[in-house]
Amino acid sequence: MGAFLDKPKMEKHNAHGEGNSLTYGLSSMQGWRVEMEDAHTAVIGLPHGLDPWSFFAVYDGHAGSQVAKYCCEHLLEHITSNPDFQSALDPEPNVESVKTGIRTGFLQIDEHMRTISEKKHGVDRSGSTAVGVMISPGHVYFINCGDSRGLLSRGGAVHFFTQDHKPSNPLEKERIQNAGGSVMIQRVNGSLAVSRALGDFDYKCVHGKGPTEQLVSPEPEVYAIERSEAEDEFIVLACDGIWDVMANEELCDFVRSRLEVTDDLERVCNEVVDTCLYKGSRDNMSVVLICFPGAPKVNPEAVKREAELDKYLENRVEEIIKNQGEEVVPDLVHVMRTLASESIPNLPPGGELASKRSVVEAVYNKLNPYRSDDTDSASTDDMWTSSSSVVSAKTGA
């Protein structure tokens, strides 16, 4: 949904923090979309006496940003204040009760937003997916409603990831059809690309059906995973603008490789969104990275390899330009396509050449300071569509 800009907006919103033996960083970028509809929440130390607990979430809005913004500000309170969740205050919280409380919080905020919308005579027709984690001393509760996604890296590999709620999924499709709807072009009634979301009240008005039986359901799936102090590394929460161009294992490997060269989590998140932009993502992009004490640490050998790779790319760009001769300076498209056709050692796993675009562009601009503005704007989209397709063909992506 939504129109596109002539040039992506690459300015980023960043934040970071630490507490409860966790560190986190986040990054969000508007990208090619005409509006930024994502929002996020990061809270260490929850209200109502839950100081050892933490909550993080990403909200991916559609048809407007209102629902995403409202959930960003109010969802946590709806979860922690409802009676079903109160067992979390017990010395040994009941896992099933916590899960029930989280679901109740989602249903409550959805009904609350419906009431607000009706008072405004149905002005707001926006909706939002939500993916989050509630981290207690003993468990990680993954929460998902829609097609944003969260994953847990444990012991050097993807240990868990949430399942996207797509209309074509058999159980989702069955609910939609039972509510009198249909799935066309993998969308609810040929329009909405997700089968669960907060808001979207035009899809929640089938008489005789409860809130979780509508065309679009606000009910999240909640998964409780027991923590492993020895093996838990990090959690990634991201909207589909990230997952559209990176698979679970690719993103996990890329993040792990970045953590070996820097402990700046904002920088890691910025590299994720930039890399996904250059891999061809056309959506808003938001990512939250939460690290446990067992996360990968900066490795001097990895730092050295990274520096050598950057130097190698700088030299290759210079060679490509010189090989064209003094009369003709190749454009950045040609440079990228040439590099993409080569076998370059030690490129970051999952990110590949796209993750090094800034290095390539910096040396290109230094060597060609009088380039036309067209290289920076209109041709950028074509450049990354063409160069990323070369990389995909080489890697079998």
From TrEMBL:
Residues 377-397 have a biased composition (Low complexity). Residues 23-292 form the PPM-type phosphatase domain. It is an enzyme of class 3 (hydrolase). It comes from the Eukaryota. Pfam families: PP2C (PF00481), PP2C_C (PF07830). Its EC number is 3.1.3.16. InterPro entries: PP2C, PP2C_BS, PP2C_C, PP2C_C_sf, PPM-type-like_dom_sf, PPM-type_phosphatase-like_dom. Belongs to the PP2C family. This is Protein phosphatase 1B.
